[in-house]
Amino acid sequence: MSRQKERRSYGIYTYEDGNTVRRLETVPDYHEEREKRKEERRVSEQKRRRRRAARRNRERALKMNAGYVAFLSVCVMVVALTSVAYVDLQSDLIFRQRSIETLQSEISTLKLENDAAYKRITASIDLKAVKKQAKKLGMKYPTDQQIRYYTIENADYMTQYSD
To answer: Is pTM, for the whole model, over 0.85?
Structure first.
């Protein structure tokens, strides 16, 4: 604790609180307090004005006239029609994809059947018997003048016309 000494001077008792200097108590500054209150009033007035403006904006937003309602109705109808058209196009696309898959499946089945039939036919033919029968009928091998060569350019088939 601080050490106190009693000392008498000029008929007034004074106390010394050790070796530290006392802090002076300042007189309250009423000017700062007044400014602070003014600022608080100004801030609260701004808040009040903003609340009033927000309330007026809400009231204006809640009021709908006939033109605005008609505009919104037209917008809703346009969005609904666009959605229906989109769903219709999507379903048509899915239907076409399924039909394409079905046709591709049929094509692959027909190709397999065609290959199987071709192999069956080629396996059943006896080429020696055909050659023997052709000689009996008077057929001969073609001469060089009878052979014609064709060049096929990027086509997978060729049409042959007889002379």
So the answer is: no
